[in-house]
Amino acid sequence: MKKQLYLNFSYSKWIWLFGGVMIIVNLTLTAFQSADNIQPLIEIINILNIIALGYTMSSMQSIHARIRENDSHQFLYALPVRKSEILRADCIYHIIMLLLTVAVFSSYVTIGHKYHLYYGLLMLVGASLFMMSLYNIMFSQTWIQNVYIKTFIYFIPLGIIFMFHVMPLNNTFIYDLDLGAAWEFYLFRIPFIVLVAGALVYAVSYYFAKKKIIKSDII
User: Fold this and answer.
1) Which of 31, 68, 212, 215 is the S-S candidate for 140 at Cβ 3.0 to 4.6 Å?
2) Tell me: the pLDDT tens digits for 63-74?
3) Which residues cross the membrane (predicted)?
4) Cβ-contact 171, 98 below 8 angstroms
């Protein structure tokens, strides 16, 4: 497991660097956000934060894509390795990257005090756990084959949530809209349900995938 974690972090160090830089930039802008001369930078920072969050949430797919393209990792697999250990390492790594996502996001929402966007983050994290559950199940059957298809499938619900939950959520606060109880339930209650359900499905999928690969555990 340690070998796989090392491999994951080695291939994603640039994502950690990008995320760390964005945290510093966000906190710096928060400290000086009252200054008029930084206002033109806000739109650029918004775009950079979206890109950073996209990479931190999809780092697993990025790593597996690079593994398929780069054979320099093969020395780490010189000794027998168990798929169950790789699966466990990938799950731990994904959780750590979600924590990095939360850190970057938390530094971002301090700019302009957009704390209402945390509801959108809950939806995105929950959806990420759902999609990684499918990833775990496919891992037990095909390991990292068709990684680009998996990446595309992974981003579909995240994109839908961003467009139809995060953006309406932000507009609701910006324009102080009151759209009724149903809309309030959708914006502020559904995220908690999605997050809890995603965590449960993620745990079940890990158990299922681990059980599925026991019969041919050695790569």
Assistant:
1) 212
2) 766 666 666 555
3) 12-32, 38-58, 91-111, 117-135, 147-166, 186-209
4) no
Other C-beta atoms lying within 10 Å of the C-beta of residue 70? 10
Structure tokens belonging to residue 4: 């796989």
Q: What is the pTM of this model?
A: 0.86
The length of the chain, given as a count of residues: 219
Q: What are the angstrom distances between the C-alpha of 78 and each of 65, 127, 139?
A: 20, 36, 21
Please check whether residue 219 lies inside any domain of the structure: no
CB-neighbour burial class of residue 116 (10 A; exposed 0-12, middle 13-18, buried 19+): middle
Q: Please check whether residue 143 lies inside any domain of the structure.
A: yes
**What 3-state DSSP class applies to 143?**
coil
CA 116 to chain centre: 19
Helix (H) or strand (E) holding 110: none
**Unique residue bearing structure tokens 């068709």:** 146
Query: What are the two backbone dihedrals, phi and then psi, of residue 211, each rounded to the nearest 5 degrees?
Result: -65, -35
Domain enclosing residue 25, as ranges: 2-214
Spatial contact of 65 and 147, defined as CB atoms under 8 Å apart:
yes
For 133-188, the pLDDT digits (tens) are: 887 776 555 544 566 777 777 888 899 999 999 999 999 988 888 888 899 999 99
